[in-house]
Amino acid sequence: MSAGEPIRIVVVDDHPLMREGLRALVTSLPDIEVVGEAGDGDAARREVQLTRPDVVVMDLHMPGVNGVEATRAIVRAVPATRVLVLTMFEDDESVFAAMRAGAFGYLVKGAKQEEIVRAVRSVAAGHAVFGPSVARRIIDFFAAGASRAPAPEPFPELTAREREVLDLIAAGRSNAAIARHLAISGKTVSNHITAIFAKLAVADRAEAIVRARQAGLGADLEQGASRADPG
Question: What is the torsional sign of CA 108, 110, 114, 117?
Fold first, then answer.
């Protein structure tokens, strides 16, 4: 964004009325313009790659590809675009999942119009922004200390079985070994892996392993896997 140019935003929400409301909100503002809309995470990713906005105002819970997955994909594909989450949910899992995915800000729906506008401007300028209730959750989490606060589940967008498969992939297990370990068919394993790659927006097994290892998966199984499953 160059000096003097308006902040270009894409609005992502599965409710058309919410998208229309945000568009109406910024219509009268000379420094913000809506350059695109999307009703789900996959459409959001395509729209952002097409328009290259400064800010994406992102809902989290949508059908199909959710906002967390979309945020992660957008941050990877268009790093200059910043994501401001605007959602009904302020539970710890949603907040920390969005932060881990790369969101710059997090507001709860019901925020005043001036608060939303101020957040868009701040995020566009590179500042992290959190609504009061969300900021309190973050402060409480760190004040409690990592030893007392439960660690957020890695990759909340995955199902429990998909996370189990990813854990085994990170440990170096082959598809056949995973099928034996979980007592499922090789085709089922392949289907789970395809879903994992899509949800994590990774291109191949190596990239999935890197992401999983960074999240702490695979470490407990690695030694046993190397002994029990050499292939």
Answer: positive
pTM above 0.85, yes or no: no
| Tokens describing residue 85 | 């989450």
Half-sphere exposure of 86 (CA within 13 A, CB side): 27
Kindly state the tokens that stand for 217. Answer: 């998966």
- In angstroms, the CA 189 to CA 158 distance is 14
Reduce the DSSP state of residue 114 to 3 states and report it: helix
The dihedrals phi and psi of 82, each to the nearest 5 degrees, come to -110, 145
Our CA angle for 59, 97, 142, nearest 5°, is 125
Q: Are residues 34 and 85 located together in one domain of the fold?
A: yes
144, 177, 210: which is the final residue of a domain?
A: 144
What confidence tens digit (pLDDT) does each residue in 150-208 have? 566 788 889 989 999 999 999 889 999 999 999 999 999 999 999 999 999 988 998 99
Rounded CA-CA distance 69/121 in Å is: 24
List the domain range (segments joined by +) for residue 139.
Answer: 7-144
CA distances from 210 to 74, 98, 183 (A): 19, 20, 25
Contact of 91 with 68, CB cutoff 8 Å: no
